[in-house]
């Protein structure tokens, strides 16, 4: 533990946002500082310890805080304390900053637009199978401040979102990776440039003995590297690294470009830990993938069904749209601002699209004169049409791909609920297929 010059010890701290991250920060700091809590919404189920520390807006303007810990879900421009936060930008920190202030552990922090969770989990499995003491935290796993039994040799694999990095000031990671970049969360960051800046904070904060792994073939990453100076050792990752491994691996999770890219990063990072190649191959071979992330939920002789509910933008669907034949593509939801459909023309005739939800007009405009599409009120109706086509065209190999390329909040709480709903619809229909 770092004890000297810790900026979060014996301070007056406001924690804003009481989701999992905010509550974990409170539990971690409550005996180390004078901690107060605020949330935009009335909390019905809250324990007495939290309730005692809740304050109102009037009190916030009276109390003078040393630090403000902001939960990733809080948008400075769209919250009850917007003006207060903008006046106190220099006091705002993230849970990653708190972690860094108290612990010296080596971290592998992974960010990017697509593939973060899969890359983190695969890296975790490989290190675990090599008997490292390793923990999975951040967007995947638990909030980092809720982790227990931390030893000096514990390695943290952290999935970091642009929201977390945007608010971070002092967090550093010995190993950092930016997998890829495409326009995302523009409704929050306002511009793509600011989104990129948030991601590159990881590299900006690194030291000379730190390592940054970046996608060699990503245009936006290349531009940012060319226009900035970084102290860290920059390692450019290329998909070609997996060619030696592909012959040894028989795992359908690594047929598409996205997961090949994820694997390339894992293999490149693994070199720094001097890991056993045969053990890596075995781990990759056994990797089952994550729920709702390009997950094959049914595979028959003439039919493959894939649940990719995690897909929230066109860029997250592109890789898998290239990987399969005769695709019946289910998509729809709340589209990402300024999202672009950049699938090469040679794949267009291989796909039929079935668009559902309120924002059909946006998807129609993007697919117009590229891919044949039909519109439906909801996912259930769209899937019904897809299943009818499957029955009518029994002689042809087909892929039902549920990859929404959109956020789920128009009809579902999150992508997990959306993915679970799709699985239930498929399960009900299996007898007829």
Please, could you describe this protein's structure?
It is a single chain. The chain is an alpha/beta fold. The chain folds into three domains: 12-93, 3-Layer(aba) Sandwich (Rossmann fold); 98-286, Mur-like, catalytic domain (UDP-N-acetylmuramoyl-L-alanine:D-glutamate ligase, 3-Layer(aba) Sandwich); 295-432, Alpha-Beta Complex (Protein-Tyrosine Phosphatase, Chain A), CATH 3.90.190. 36% of the residues lie in helices and 18% in strands. The protein is built from 17 helices and 16 strands. The strands form three sheets. The chain has a six-stranded parallel beta sheet, with helices on both faces. It has a six-stranded mixed beta sheet with strand order 11-12-16-13-14-15, sandwiched between helices. Helix 1 (20-29) links the parallel strand 1 (12-16) and strand 2. Helix 6 (116-129) packs across helix 12 and helix 6 packs across helix 13. 43% of the residues are buried. The model has no long low-confidence stretch (mean pLDDT 92).
């Amino acid at each position: 533990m770092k004890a000297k010059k810790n900026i979060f010890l014996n301070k007056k701290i406001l924690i804003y946002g009481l989701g999992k991250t905010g509550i974990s920060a409170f539990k971690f700091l409550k005996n180390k500082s004078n901690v107060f809590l605020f949330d935009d919404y009335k909390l019905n189920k809250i324990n007495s310890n939290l309730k005692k520390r809740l304050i109102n807006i009037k009190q916030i303007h009276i109390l003078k805080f040393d630090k403000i810990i902001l939960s990733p879900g809080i948008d400075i421009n769209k919250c009850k304390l917007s003006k207060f936060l903008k006046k106190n930008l220099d006091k705002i920190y993230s849970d990653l900053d708190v972690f860094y202030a108290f612990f010296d552990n080596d971290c592998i922090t992974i960010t990017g637009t697509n593939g973060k969770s899969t890359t983190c989990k695969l890296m975790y499995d490989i290190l675990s199978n090599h008997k490292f003491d390793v923990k999975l935290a951040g967007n995947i796993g638990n909030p980092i401040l809720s982790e227990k039994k931390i030893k000096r040799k514990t390695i943290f694999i952290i999935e970091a979102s642009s929201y977390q990095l945007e608010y971070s000031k002092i967090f550093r990671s010995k190993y950092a990776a930016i997998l890829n970049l495409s326009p995302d969360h523009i409704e929050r960051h306002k511009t793509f440039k600011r989104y990129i800046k948030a991601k590159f904070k990881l590299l900006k904060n690194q030291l000379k003995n730190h390592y940054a792994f970046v996608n060699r073939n990503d245009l936006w990453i290349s531009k940012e590297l060319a226009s900035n100076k970084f102290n860290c050792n920059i390692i450019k990752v290329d998909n070609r690294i997996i060619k030696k491994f592909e012959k040894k691996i028989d795992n359908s999770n690594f047929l598409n470009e996205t997961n090949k890219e994820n694997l390339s990063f894992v293999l490149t990072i693994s070199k720094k830990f001097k890991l056993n190649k045969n053990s890596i191959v075995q781990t990759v071979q056994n990797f089952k993938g994550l729920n709702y992330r390009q997950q094959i939920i049914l595979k028959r002789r003439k039919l493959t069904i894939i649940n990719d509910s995690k897909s929230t933008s066109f860029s997250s669907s592109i890789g898998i749209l290239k990987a399969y034949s005769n695709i019946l593509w289910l998509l729809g939801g709340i589209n990402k601002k300024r999202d672009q459909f950049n699938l090469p023309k040679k794949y267009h005739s291989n796909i039929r699209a079935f668009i559902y939800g309120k924002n059909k007009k946006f998807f129609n405009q993007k697919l117009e004169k590229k891919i044949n599409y039909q519109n439906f009120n909801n996912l259930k109706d769209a899937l019904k049409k897809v299943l009818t086509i499957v029955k009518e065209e029994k002689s042809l190999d087909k892929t039902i791909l549920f990859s929404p390329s959109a956020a789920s909040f128009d009809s579902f709480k999150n992508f997990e609920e959306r993915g679970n709903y799709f699985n239930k619809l498929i399960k009900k229909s299996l007898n007829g297929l």
